[in-house]
């Protein structure tokens, strides 16, 4: 007999995967609140560790499709990821030291910031894109390394994929077109997630059965979200705005619960 918690894990994973496939980033920000308030994971730190495992595996699954479609610029993605791995390792070490309820409170504030960033984000054509090579290394390497380290640190601290930050980061640093930035971002999301997951797993802060169910649900939800995104491609801006509103509402809820627990 399937337990209620198992159904909640599958359903929550499906929701995260669906939003990732539908709007191309930001869905993983819902993973920790869903694990804590829907699935019922008692420890915020275990929720973050479990989320990191799920995010990394889901991102890798989506990366394969984008790579086959030629949407990954590997030199830029690998440099960005290398810097971010160091940032994620440091961020996850700091996150584990912070009280769980305080971490959730800060997480809620981050959700509000992300919602605002998604609403303000503009799509770029990538007309000024220059591939990373000998001629452009002096200009692009500092940008990619600096942005990668910063985003990786935030990803590790909160146990999130960071795609909502990586995509504009790659677009800013290397003028990547939106679709290519999304595909390339999945390299970094996978790398950051694995780094954070390893750190938390070594501390015994991962619920592996929940992670497995969450990933399974995410794969199914991701397929559904991607199919729907193709049908609604002309309404991508509206979808992103609606999702940003959802993130803001959940962020306010997390802040409210966090303040209540601290009080």
Helix percentage range = over 70%
Stretches where pLDDT is under 50 for at least 5 consecutive residues are none
- Largest pleated sheet: none
What is the rounded Rg?
A: 17 Å
Count of distinct strands: 0
Domain module count = 1
Tell me, rounded to a whole number, the average pLDDT: 83
Strand/helix succession: HHHHHHHHHH
Distance between the termini: 39 Å
Q: In percent terms, what proportion of residues is strand?
A: under 5%
Describe the structure.
- The chain is an all-alpha fold and 263 residues long.
- It has one domain (4-262).
- It has helices at residues 4-23, 31-39, 44-68, 74-97, 100-120, 137-158, 163-174, 178-202, 208-231, 236-262.
- The longest helix is centred in the C-terminal third of the chain and has 27 residues, at 236-262.
- It is globular, with a radius of gyration of 17 Å.
Features:
263 residues; mainly alpha
Summarize the structure.
The chain is mostly helical and 263 residues long. The protein is built from 10 helices and no strands.
Layout of helices and strands:
Elements: H1 4-23, H2 31-39, H3 44-68, H4 74-97, H5 100-120, H6 137-158, H7 163-174, H8 178-202, H9 208-231, H10 236-262
Helix pairs in contact: 1-2, 1-9, 2-3, 3-8, 3-9, 4-6, 4-8, 5-10, 6-7, 6-8, 7-8
């Amino acid at each position: 007999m399937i337990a209620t918690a198992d159904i909640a894990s599958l359903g929550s994973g499906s929701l995260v995967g669906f939003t990732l496939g539908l709007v191309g980033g930001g869905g993983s920000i819902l993973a920790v609140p869903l694990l804590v308030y829907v699935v019922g994971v008692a420890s915020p730190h275990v929720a973050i560790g479990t989320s990191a495992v799920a995010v990394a595996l889901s991102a890798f699954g989506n990366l394969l499709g984008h790579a086959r479609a030629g949407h990954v610029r590997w030199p830029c993605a690998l440099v960005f990821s290398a810097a971010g791995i160091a940032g994620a390792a440091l961020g996850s070490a700091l996150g584990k030291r912070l009280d769980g309820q305080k971490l959730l409170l800060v997480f809620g504030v981050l959700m509000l910031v992300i919602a605002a960033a998604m609403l303000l984000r503009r799509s770029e054509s990538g007309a000024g894109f220059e591939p990373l090579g000998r001629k452009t290394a002096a200009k692009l390497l500092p940008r990619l390394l600096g942005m990668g380290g910063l985003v990786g640190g935030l990803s590790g601290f909160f146990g999130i994929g960071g795609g909502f930050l990586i995509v504009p980061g790659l677009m800013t640093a290397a003028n990547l077109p939106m679709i290519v930035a999304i595909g390339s971002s999945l390299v970094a999301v996978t790398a950051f997630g694995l780094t954070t997951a390893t750190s938390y797993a070594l501390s015994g802060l991962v619920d592996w059965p929940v992670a497995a169910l969450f990933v399974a649900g995410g794969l199914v939800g991701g397929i559904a979200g991607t199919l729907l995104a193709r049908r609604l491609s002309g309404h991508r801006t509206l979808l992103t705005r609606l999702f940003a509103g959802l993130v803001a509402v959940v962020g306010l809820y997390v802040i409210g619960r966090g303040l209540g627990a601290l009080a």
